[in-house]
Amino acid sequence: MEPRLQEDSASWIFFVHAAFAIALLAMTVGIWLLPDPLWIKGYLGMGLFFTVSATITLSKTTRDNHEARKLHHRLVEAKTEKILTEYSK
Q: Which parts of the chain have pLDDT scores under 50?
């Protein structure tokens, strides 16, 4: 396992989780308290939860792609170094 260059503090991780939970709760309560029929509230609720799901998926995919690019660049750099080392002999 590669060493981590950046470690998030426990307070930052708590803040991120709390902000997500508060935002989700506030939006859910806001939809529930709308003076509209239940089917409209349900539609808005489904839209909210699909948006949250898509956001989580997008952030995970972006992170995974970033990690893959870092690994790819390290491999290319190692191959280049090996070629240069063999050439300079």
A: 1
